[in-house]
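Structure ticket #2291
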Amino acid sequence: MKTTDEAQKGYVYILTNPSFREDWVKIGKSSRPVDVRSRELDNAAVPLPFEIYATLQCSSYDKVEGLLHNILGNIAGKRIRNNREFFNVKPEDALEAFKRIADILPDAKVFIQGIEEEKPRESKVPLTRAPQAKKKRDKNYTVVQIKSYKDELPKNVKVSWNGTDYYSMAEFVPLFVKQYTKTTPLTFRELQQTFPNEWLKGNFSRLGVIVKLDDITNSPMKEDAKDKSYRYHDGNLIFESKDHIKYCVSNQWTRETFKNVLRFAFAQGYPLSYRVKK
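Resolution: structure written out below.
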């Protein structure tokens, strides 16, 4: 359950669009995950989906958005139309404004997607294992920081979102969804919007990333096929949405489709890494 402070936090975001000029951005706010908001904006008014360039999370997100709109629109004259949230500003310049604001706000965090030279911010997940155990593990493995979701991962890789616990791709996605929804509870519909079926390929895309437990239980699929796709029988991998719908998460991921998960994790500020045997 969220604390009062967490419940009051929201996001200010920078969105870009491949169909726009390179120095055009949309700067807005949302009390919900920006990934959900960007999908709502994907409609007939724009030929291509919006892309999340950066987000700033803080409790005073409403004031921060107003400040940015005033500075960029009224003072710098960069607003494209008075009644719209579009600005004639390079994304990297808008990001610099985010960083400066974050420096003076005690609870602000800036999350950056797709900028390889930017080091990830502090993890949302505290490191809970004893230092001794971590040192012992490091003698047998080399840990590699993932700098971009586009990085090519080795075969049979194990990935971490907190620098401590490493999982195969099949294990990572369900447990990451579980971790993410601890701090950001979502309804079942919001879950499907946040983790869309398009992240998968082929038959697995038709099965879905987020699926109701009842749909799996009542599916005509053979039991071994259900087990392979969702491991639905394992109580640790049955979750419940904000609106009390029990669901499972697909564990059928390739290194290519897994990049969709990494891209989302980067956008949320998780420091990602993988480990390989020495």
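Closing remark: The first strand starts at residue 10 and ends at 16.
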